[in-house]
Amino acid sequence: MEEVSNEARSKVEQRPALSGNVDVQKPPLPEEARSLSKSDQKVLGRQERYKQTKLQKRAQDKAMRHQETEKKRREWQEKLANLSEDEVQKAKEERMGLRASRKDERKVRKDKLIQVMADGQNIVIDLEFVENMKPNEISSLCQQVVHSYAANGRAEVPCRLSLTSCTSTVREQLKMHYGFESWLLHKEYKSYIDVFEGRKEDLVYLTADSETVLETVDKTKIYIVGGLVDHDRWDGIAAEKAKNQGISTAKLPIDKHMLSSQVLTVDQVVDILLQFMNIGDWEKAVSTAIPPRKRVASDPLEGASKQTKCDSDQMSSKRGDSAMDAMSEVGDEPMANELAREMSIVDSASQSASFSESSVDGLKS
């Protein structure tokens, strides 16, 4: 058995490197894992290779950001070299003023998050379903969690965001990718029933299967978003869970604003709630949080090409780069790194496949 395992490992090590210069080799299984079944060993092996890939990808992204920083610094020096002494002084003063302004804005955002952690509107992401998920589903859910956190950091009126049933399975993955331990939110091992003990009547589980429509966001209520990825596989499970626990359910009033399925991702639900808390209008909240291809066009003459372009622009700035967008408001790299220590958003930027030119310019100009 050991000889077969070594032969298989040798074949994996001889495979060509993956695209993007990420050379992932099959890591040896720990001694205790060799007593597992072949199926369990394969699952463990995939998880280890996934971790190794992510770590190497992070190192590559860090190197790329460093190169981009050096490029911006050279361009700045070249710009100054072509200016007169007075113009150089003016340019430096303008830059320092911009940095000071961004630093003040960052402090305001941080202070808001600290304040709402004490008395803000409660929104909970329920992670209890994770234990029955596949590794790729857990990874997708973690991406949605980080987008939710970044959206809350950008919100004019943020919420008191909590992660419940946040066990080691999720914590380890979030810590590996996103500097999870420094996030300004509540991270609970316990379920929301235990976390909000004595407030069962205030719990409201948000699910499209509910017969109750959420008309407004009530400050006294605790809104729960189910941490689900493959909704076809989990059809009706959130509503059934709430029913068994004897807690209320509600669905977002988005029927008339949606063209396609009303199944939303975790971060889309959180973003819609945040938008409504800020502007008090469900239609505008949906239009801000949901890509146009899934929405009813407010303009009947809006063409498909216009929708496609708008969809592409919005999706790149709001979902794939949500954490980078939050960073783009910070300014230069030193300040960005400081924000990373305070709010731990910077690591999530390295997970985006690509990011917009405006985000990079805002981050390092």
TrEMBL record:
Tell me its EC number(s), please: 2.1.1.221
Q: Which UniProt keywords apply?
A: Methyltransferase, S-adenosyl-L-methionine, Transferase
The UniProt entry, under InterPro entries, shows: MT_TRM10-typ, MT_TRM10-typ_sf, tRNA_m1G_MeTrfase_euk
- Residues annotated as domain SAM-dependent MTase TRM10-type: 109-297
Q: Residue spans with biased composition (Low complexity)?
A: 345-365
The ranges of region (Disordered) come to 1-103, 296-365
Q: At the top level of its lineage, which domain of life is listed? A: Eukaryota
- What GO annotations for molecular function exist for this entry? tRNA (guanosine(9)-N1)-methyltransferase activity
Provide the coiled-coil residue spans.
none
Report the PROSITE patterns cross-referenced here: SAM_MT_TRM10
Protein name, per record: tRNA (guanine(9)-N(1))-methyltransferase
Instruction: Please tell me the species this chain comes from.
Output: Physcomitrium patens
Q: Which gene encodes it?
A: LOC112277997
